[in-house]
């Protein structure tokens, strides 16, 4: 079909040719803009329709087809349906996407970022509404706590300290959250992030103190049955001294394996979560990995001594399923840059030759908090904890957690011997993850006590 003028008259005159199921119109002066016409219902007998019937049963879908920057690949974006999206609207969209292409930006990437920002905005708006309307929300409870503060005999200065801590740290994250759903482990991770990632131990202590007080108040008001932070005064020093104490339970691992691909976040972040869940390694070290360090033939990343915290070389084994994930991601990078350089960083922001800041991953993980709350540090502990229950040697567990082997039996291991032993257990971990993907209870140890279904149901009735 020849190009037509972008006007209401020309669009009105368009028809799907007889004997066809669809047709595509393009427009003079609007490169890449298409109007795709198809039948609304393929089961309709077209020969029985008159001209009006054919118009009524036609769907008009705006599309923008373009060649990705630095790539020969062509792709298409749907812009919505005509007449819901009218001609003026689609002209504006076309102009926006053309400008993005001229600047070297892929419109699909931009669209994904906009969707992510909109999802975050909607979640924040809903959290704000819940914070004022839901009686068991953190914010609603804190407002009541402030009103009743004079009854406690506390000083104005004490209340002001709680207010400052709440407004700066607790409110932005926990505003509309139902206090009944906050678990001790989830709270520990939040405090850990403030203490060890943001390096604000004093602030973390105040945050923990304020929240313990708020939970106690919620118990007094019969909003929750018990204080989940009761008796946990020393939790912060404990976490700061041993930041890997928390780990992902069986159901949480199952959730990641089955739902991660559905999350609205950049593809590199999904890859990073997969890598850290499957092979561990500190997030800080992932910021240093260059493409040239990946030895695909030997299935490993070869970290040079100068890149490691202890100044010694290290290898990270890459199982076949992990290599497949890496190849898919590298394919995306090749489409983006045209060719790959060994000096490029595996993970980067805008410049592939510029190393990321050490806390870059921790900051970006926050976009997943509405789905599942975790920090980069939790994955190594998750792997070592569950492999420990399956009999992995202590040296392997310490290696997975990137802890020194200079003490005890570990110091007698040769580098290659320890790598081979660790590789064996990492491969075994991949098989375990396949079991967890199918069964959310696969990681629950036989040693753990589990309540039977009948009693569990009664507990749910009482506290639900």
Describe the protein.
The strands form two sheets. This protein has a four-stranded antiparallel sheet. Helix 17 crosses helix 18. About 4% of the residues have low confidence. Helices cover 50% and strands 9% of the residues. It is built from 19 helices and seven strands. With 464 residues, the protein is of the alpha+beta class. Strand 3 and strand 4 form a beta hairpin.
Fold topology:
Layout: H1 8-13, E1 22-26, E2 33-39, H2 51-56, E3 58-67, E4 74-82, H3 87-102, H4 107-133, H5 138-147, H6 149-152, H7 156-174, H8 184-197, H9 201-220, H10 235-241, H11 250-259, H12 267-279, H13 283-286, E5 294-295, E6 300-303, E7 314-317, H14 320-337, H15 360-364, H16 378-388, H17 394-400, H18 415-438, H19 453-463
Antiparallel strand pairs: 1-2, 2-3, 3-4, 5-6, 6-7
What tags apply to this protein structure?
7 strands; three-stranded antiparallel beta sheet; globular; alpha+beta; 464 residues
Mean pLDDT: 82
In spatial order, strands of the major sheet run: 1-2-3-4
Termini, distance in Å? 62 Å
Strand content: 5-15%
In short:
This protein is of the alpha+beta class. The chain is 50% helix and 9% strand.
